Amino acid sequence: MTAICPAACTPASRGISAAQPRKITKKAIATYWPAHDADGELTDALREFANALVRGTLDRITEIDAILASHAQNWRIERMAVIDRLVLRLAIYELMADPDTPSRVVINEALELARSYSGEEAVGFVNGVLDSVKKELRPE
Asked: Does domain 45-137 have CATH number 1.10.940.10?
């Protein structure tokens, strides 16, 4: 089996400190992951919905982060795990911008993403924050 990177291709051999590979890996995932659809599962309509969700989130990031900060008690946004923060931002945007999707559907999708990509320990945090946000954005 051929290695992806030869033995000489190490972070140290490229002048990268021990603290940087994680940052680089996160950046690579953030760049690669959204563009990669290896299974070809996304139809054009689904791909456009996903792109609109990301664009809308980015367009309203300041507003979303203000909401997130006010509901994530004792947590600064920049201290949250990257995946948790991204899941929360997308869900908050969807709660704000898509009243046709029931709150429980938005929250359940966010919980599944947190469970799949962050871990079981993130689920309670994401659920608590989104439940609080839902009460503000979509009072029943």
From this structure: yes
